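Slide 14.
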Amino acid sequence: MTQRDKAIYLDLDPKTLRNWRKNKPNLYKIIMLGFAFKDVVEKSKENYEGLVELAKEAVEK
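Slide 15: predicted structure.
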């Protein structure tokens, strides 16, 4: 996800994120950590679903 995509997702102007990065680094860091957390949760869900499928295949054989 690009900075522009993140800004759109947050309903912000991309300039606002750039300004926060420069002038409010702690706020910017928290927002970026939120996006990183979201990505990790989505990847974990995909991995879990893949493991469930593998378990089903193993049981069927």
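Speaker note: The two ends are 40 Å apart (CA to CA).
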